[in-house]
Amino acid sequence: MTPNAVTFKQARRYSTAEPPFVRRLLIIVALTFIALFLVIPLISVFAQALNKGLGVYWASIRDPLALSAIKLTLIAAGISVPMNCIFGVSAAWAIAKFDFPGKNVLLTLIDLPFSVSPVISGLIYVLVFGAQGWMGLYEKADHPWFPWLQRWLHTHNIQIIFAVPGIVLATIFVTFPFVARELIPLMQAQGRTEEEAARVLGASGWQMFWRVTMPNIKWGLLYGIILCNARAMGEFGAVSVISGHIRGSTDSLGTNTIPLHVEILYSEYHFTAAFAVASLLTFLALITLVLKAWVQRKNDALNAAGELSA
Amino acid sequence: MPGKTKIKKFRILPGFKMTLGYTLFYLSLIVLIPLAAVFWKTSTLSWPEFWRVATSPLALASYRLSFGASFLAALVNSIFGLVVAWVLVRYSFLGKKIVDALVDLPFALPTAVAGITLATVYAPNGWIGAWFVPLGIKIAYTQIGVFVALTFIGLPFIVRTVQPVLEDFDTEIEEASANLGANRWQTFWRVILPNLLPALLTGFALAFARALGEYGSVVFISSNIPMKTQITPLLIMSKLEQFDYPGATALAVVMLVVSFLLLFIINLLQWWSNRHNANTLS
Predict the structure, then answer these.
(1) CA distance B1 to chain A (A)
(2) In the prediction, which pLDDT does A13 show?
(3) Euclidean distance between CA atoms A74 and B195, whole angstroms
(4) Sign of the CA dihedral B241, B242, B246, B251?
(5) B43-281 placed in CATH 1.10.10.10
(6) Nearest C-alpha of chain A: how many angstroms from B275?
(7) pLDDT digits (tens, 9 = 90+) for A135-159
(8) How far apart are CA A257 and CA A154, in angstroms?
(9) Is A36 in Cβ contact with B240 (below 8 Å)?
(10) pLDDT for B67
(11) Is B41 in Cβ contact with A133 (below 8 Å)?
C-alpha cells in the first residue's frame, strides 16, 4: 500500500463530504457572516444601553413616557393578538377541513399583508379614516356614498387616526396572517378523519373542537401566537404613519408605542435611553427565539409520535 | 321526472358557513376595503398627474436605490445564506444550536431596534464601521448602509427556505455522483446546486420582496437625502409629512403593484419548488 493512498473509509467519506479544510473554511465564513450582521449588533444594544451604568438604565425605563409607551404597546398587542388568533383558527378550519372553489385565491389574500410595505399598511388606514380620505369625503359631504361608518364616528366624535384605535388597527393589519399561516398547513396535513370519527361517535361541534382539534393544533397555535405577538409589539413603520407621535404622560396614554418612543429618544440624541428602552424589545425578541425553538421541538415530537402511531 | 335533482353534499363536520363567513368578513374589513382606499385615492388623480408623480426624478431615484439595494442584499444573502444553511445541516460545531436559533433574529427583533443598533455599529465610530474608515469606506448614512440594513432583514429567508430542502436531500444521489467519478466540487455544482435552485430562488424572491418595502431598519442608517439615500418607503413617508397625500398614494400604488407581481412570482416559484422536491423524493 502506497503511503498516500486513501483508505476505503476515507474515500467513502470524501465522496459525500468535504475535506476538513473546506469544512473549517465554510464554518468560518458562515460564523463571520452571522457575527457581522447578527451577533455584534445584538451585543451592541446591551452595551449601549448599559454604558452609563445601571442607574441610568433603570431611570430610562421607569421614565413616565417610557411607561406610557409600554402600556400602549401592551394594549395594542393585547387586542390584535386575540383578534388574529380567532381569525386564524376560523380561517384554518374553513380552508383545511372543507373543499370549496377559490381556496387558493383566499390563501393568497390572507398572505397579502406580508407583502405590503409597513408604510403603506399605515397609509391605508389614514385614507380610510383621515380627513384626506373617506372621512374627509363625509365631512365635506360632497358625495357621501360610502362613509356610513365615518358618519357614525363623526357624530360620536371618535378619533381613529392619530389615536389609539388607529394604532390597534395598523397592528392588526401587519400581524394579520401569522396565526392563519401556521395553522392552515398543519391542519391540512392532519386531515379530517379524527374530527369525523368524533362526530360519528356523537361529539357535539364544540366537544369535537376542544377535545380533538385543539390538542392537535395547540403547538402550532402557540407558535403562531408567539410570532404574532413579537411583530405586534415591535411594529414600527405602520404605527409610525398613523400615530402622529403624541406623547403620553402619567394621566394620558399618548400615541407612542415602545418602538416609536425609541425613535424619538434616538432622534433627540438620548442614545443611552433609546438603547435602554430598545433592550426591552431585544429581550422580547430573544425570549421569542427561545420559545420558538422550544415549541418547534415539541411540535416535531408530536408529529413524529403521530407518524409512529399511524 | 324533474330534469335536475340537486344533490346536496352532506358535510359531517360543522361550522363551514360560520368560519368561512367570518374569515371573509374579517378579511374584507381589515385588509381588502382599506387596501381599496389606496386605489380609490389614486383615482382622484388624472392619469397624466399620476404618471408625473410616479416618474418624477425623485421617485425614479428612489426606485433605483430600492430595487438596486434590495437586489444586491438578496444576492449576498443567497450566497452566504446557502453557506449558513449548508453548515447548519451538514456539519457539527460548538454553538450550532444557538446559531440556528439566532438566524431568526431579524424576524423577531423589531425593525426600529435593528435600525438604531445597525446605525450605531456601522457608523464611522462604531464597532464595525471603524474598521472601514482607514479603507475610506463609509457605511452608515450612505447607500452601503441601506444595503447593510436590507441584508440584515433578508438573512433568514434564504436560510429557512434552503435548510429543509437540504435536510431532506438524499445522500444516495451524492454517492451515485461520486461513484460515477465526479469530484466533490462537481457533485456540488452539477448535482446538489441544481436541486437547491428552486428553494434558493424562492428565498431570494422572498428576501427581495421584504427588502423592497422595508422602512424601520433603513430609516436610521440612511441619511435620507433625496436622490441619494432615500428609498421609496422613505419618500412616501416624507410626502406624508408634507401632507402630500395624492403624491404618497400614487407611489404607494406603484409599490403595491410591484409587491403583488412579486407575490405572484413567489407563488409560482413555491409551486415549482414543491413539485421539484416531490419528484426528487419519489
Answers:
(1) 30
(2) 60
(3) 45
(4) negative
(5) no
(6) 16
(7) 666 666 555 555 677 777 777 777 8
(8) 26
(9) no
(10) 95
(11) yes
